[in-house]
User: Which sequence fits this backbone?
């Protein structure tokens, strides 16, 4: 604890620029990861071959299995990681920042090395691993997109979890009553927007602290859905809680491409909606007049107001749209993953989506990548426990959260939120 | 509720509850009570004392403040939340819905069932939380009140931890992880150390508090050192803590009961269990007294100590605090350490008091998140948190009776709790609904 009495570094004012201590974090984090993998290679090396199965039976042509010797692969991975760390340190030393692609490449190599170690003598179903990651990430991606939109307009949305849960709940009920998953999907969007409306009502109209409204709304939605589940849904499961499911919808031609096809294009309609939503959100936010207004309202509401943009109305509409997007993610739970609603079935995924928003620096594409990363880590723990990897499942399940902490503290600790994020706007 | 808390009558614009009409308070007529217009005075006691001591029309001013001030808003918020909760109970009641179908021909039926459902629900709530009129002897009748106190203890402790962090401008959502780590640490000391109760119990409690402090302090340290947002870090630490404790509970030689395959530890030895407060016929144990001591300590810390002053200064305005020579980063670490110790004591309370049959991953029982609503309802004031903790403890105790005797899911309490906090956070909304005058300054 002796470190705490030292003067704290300047926290909020200055994002790190070239040559400043902030930029040092990337090589430090990379170095720590390299060291951990090296320790793994030195003390816990496992003999045998790791097999990566990358073929699916629908491919145009057969892709051979990739078989690598576990020990040698891990050793060469350590060397590669050390080179990456050195490159990062060199760049920082020259006053430049570590580029994102280097960090990404580093992560891919590190994961490959880890897999080669963990799967010694076993087979990793690469298609299943990646495809499952995308399926798991769907609610996170929709949640993160909604979060990005809301925060870009200046409203912190902690209620993503509540929106997901309420969306799942509405999709289950209306999907059953209407008898079509599309009905459930629309209901989920309305449910997400409804939670957003309440959030906006308190946060925009009544200036209540947005973080608090969000947290409380999550509790409220858990309470309402669990209460109604106990009172109604569990009593009449056939008439209220057995929604028709979206089935897998392989895209012809695209779905037959090796590796990419089964991973990306043999999914449900909601996954394709997700691709569209990410592209559309990114385009709308950066390339349209509407997006400019949203960002203006989030960065400098007063200036936006001065040029005639209706600040609070823009915030409301953006928030409602964001809520509807999150609602689609919620629908995934009851229309794709599980065939009925269960109490607190989101399991805090909204908080992970929130982490993805911050991890992704309030950018729709980066936030989507972060959400995919979380989906991958979760699915990886499942796959590894199936093949019996020598890592306790608790530690694998812990991984996404540890990675988030490292990322938030180490890599993006100084990332800048929209300037007016969380600040209610009062005219005058 | 908060009525017996003199501090809660004061409204202060603070970070959590930006009070929109605060500028209006400055327009108080000069003839007004001196204590009323100094909303920004840090020391509440002075202003309340001044209000009481003032010679001119002490009652008129006090009444006006009660009618329009935050106490009234708090009470009305509770009323509103209960009304919404009642509507939910009625809307899902089979008899009420059936009689609704023929309300035109026999409206009497409908109102009969409405009355039945409401009196049944709240009668059960009261029976389960305060006084059981159906009991045969005094001990059975008063037992619900002791259950309320038992449930209040950890809510107050964890609420203090969250509230203390609030006062320094930090949002501690990590109650769950802190409680789990603390419970596991206390359980580990209780199981693995063999000592007389006079040493064993304090040692286990200390270990728990220390574990909670470290887990929260980690978030404070990361915030101070790297600027990592404490909301994200504490949420993530909840999951990390959960899996850590899960792992320890599923590993022989760590915390798992010998020879067992379940993720659960063995029962706590007698010498490390908090003794019952009122004899063995009641479940209430000394944890509640510990909670009261913690309230007193936190009140002293916040209002009388130099460190508490730094906490509040940083919470009001970190830039100003930094400019006046306060080490903001160190303050973040200290406040999270103390807050984590308080939340940790709630975990200790569960393991060594309420459920000494063994450590499990569910030992937090949702208290870590309930604590947030407790702290918000108590407006982050120690005495307010005491009152809020008692209220929520009563709701919790009563909800079980409601569930057993009326078949109403216990989650109705979550709905009521969160609505109370929502309404309390928006005083203008509550005033508008009840058509109260806008300001105490009319």
Assistant:
């Amino acid at each position: 604890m002796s470190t705490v009495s030292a003067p704290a570094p300047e926290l909020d004012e200055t994002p790190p620029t070239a040559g400043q201590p902030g930029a040092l974090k990337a090589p430090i984090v990379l170095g720590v990861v390299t060291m951990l993998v090296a320790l793994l290679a030195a003390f816990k090396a496992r003999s045998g071959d790791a097999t990566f199965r990358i073929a699916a039976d629908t491919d145009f042509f057969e892709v051979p299995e990739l078989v690598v010797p576990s020990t040698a692969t891990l050793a060469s991975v350590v060397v590669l990681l050390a080179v990456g760390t050195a490159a990062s340190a060199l760049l920082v030393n020259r006053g430049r920042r570590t580029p994102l692609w280097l960090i990404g490449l580093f992560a891919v190599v590190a994961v490959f090395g880890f897999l080669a170690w963990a799967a010694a003598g076993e087979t990793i179903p690469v298609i299943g691993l990646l495809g499952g990651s995308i399926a798991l990430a769907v609610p996170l991606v929709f949640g993160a997109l909604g979060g990005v939109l809301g925060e870009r307009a200046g409203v912190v949305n902690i209620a993503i979890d509540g929106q997901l849960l309420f969306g799942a709940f509405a999709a289950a009920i209306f999907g059953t009553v209407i008898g079509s998953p599309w009905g459930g999907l629309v209901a989920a969007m309305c449910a997400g927007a409804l939670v957003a409306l309440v959030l906006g009502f308190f946060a925009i109209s009544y200036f209540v602290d947005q973080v608090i409204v969000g947290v409380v709304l999550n509790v409220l939605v858990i309470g309402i859905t669990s209460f109604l589940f106990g009172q109604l849904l569990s009593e009449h499961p056939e008439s209220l809680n057995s929604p028709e499911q979206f089935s897998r919808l392989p895209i012809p031609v695209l779905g037959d491409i090796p590796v990419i096809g089964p991973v990306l294009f043999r999914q449900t309609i909601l996954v394709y909606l997700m691709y569209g939503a990410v592209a559309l959100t990114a385009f709308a936010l950066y390339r349209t007049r509407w997006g400019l207004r949203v960002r203006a309202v989030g960065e400098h509401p007063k200036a936006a107001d001065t040029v005639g943009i209706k600040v609070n109305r823009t915030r409301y509409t953006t928030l409602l749209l964001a809520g509807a997007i999150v609602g689609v993610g919620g629908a995934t739970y009851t229309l794709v993953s599980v065939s009925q609603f269960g109490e607190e079935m989101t399991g805090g995924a909204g908080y992970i989506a929130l982490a993805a928003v911050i991890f992704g620096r309030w950018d729709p594409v980066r936030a989507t990548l972060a959400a995919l990363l979380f989906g991958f880590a979760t699915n990886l723990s499942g796959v590894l426990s199936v093949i019996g990897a020598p890592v306790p499942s608790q530690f694998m399940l812990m991984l996404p959260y540890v990675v988030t902490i490292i990322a938030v503290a180490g890599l993006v600790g100084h990332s800048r939120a929209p300037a007016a994020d969380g600040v209610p706007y009062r005219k005058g | 509720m908060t009525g017996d808390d003199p501090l809660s009558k004061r409204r202060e614009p603070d970070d959590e509850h930006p009070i929109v009409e605060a500028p209006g308070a400055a327009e108080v007529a000069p003839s007004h009570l001196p204590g009323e217009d100094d909303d920004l005075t840090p020391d509440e006691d002075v202003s309340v004392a001044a209000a009481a001591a003032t010679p001119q029309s002490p009652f008129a001013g006090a009444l006006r403040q009660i009618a329009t001030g935050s106490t009234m808003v708090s009470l009305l918020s509770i009323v509103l939340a209960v009304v919404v909760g009642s509507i939910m109970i009625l809307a899902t009641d089979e008899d009420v819905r059936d009689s609704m179908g023929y309300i035109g021909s026999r409206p009497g039926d409908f109102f009969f069932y409405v009355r039945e459902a409401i009196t049944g629900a709240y009668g059960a709530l009261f029976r389960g939380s305060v006084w059981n009129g159906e009991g045969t002897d005094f001990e059975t009748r008063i037992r619900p009140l002791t259950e309320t106190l038992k449930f209040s203890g950890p809510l107050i402790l964890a609420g203090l931890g969250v509230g203390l962090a609030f006062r320094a401008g930090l949002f501690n959502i990590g109650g769950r992880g802190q409680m789990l780590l603390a419970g596991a640490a206390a359980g580990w000391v209780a199981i693995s150390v063999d000592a007389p109760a006079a040493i064993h119990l304090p040692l286990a409690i200390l270990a728990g508090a220390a574990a909670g402090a470290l887990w929260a302090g980690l978030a404070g340290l990361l915030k101070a050192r790297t600027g990592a947002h404490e909301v994200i870090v504490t949420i993530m630490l909840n999951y990390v803590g959960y899996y850590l404790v899960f792992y320890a509970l599923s590993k022989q030689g760590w915390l798992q009961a010998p020879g067992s395959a379940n993720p659960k530890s063995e029962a706590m030895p007698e010498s490390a269990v908090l003794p019952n407060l009122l004899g063995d016929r009641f479940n209430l144990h000394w944890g509640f007294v510990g909670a009261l001591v913690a309230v007193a300590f936190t009140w002293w810390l916040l209002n009388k100590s130099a460190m508490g002053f730094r906490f509040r200064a940083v919470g009001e305005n970190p830039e100003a605090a930094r400019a006046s020579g306060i080490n903001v980063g160190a303050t973040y670490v200290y406040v999270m350490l103390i807050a984590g110790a308080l939340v940790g004591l709630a975990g200790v309370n569960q393991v060594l008091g309420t459920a000494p049959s063994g450590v499990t991953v569910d030992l937090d029982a949702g208290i870590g998140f309930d604590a947030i609503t407790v702290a918000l309802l108590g407006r982050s004031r120690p005495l307010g948190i005491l009152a809020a903790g008692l209220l929520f403890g009563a709701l919790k105790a009563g909800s079980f009776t409601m569930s057993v005797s009326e078949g109403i899911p216990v989650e109705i309490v979550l709905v009521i709790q969160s609505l109370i906090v929502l309404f309390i956070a928006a005083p203008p909304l509550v005033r508008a609904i009840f058509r109260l005058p806008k300001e105490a300054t009319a």
Remarks:
- Residues 84 and 279 of chain A are 31 Å apart (CA to CA).
- The longest helix of chain A spans residues 126-152.
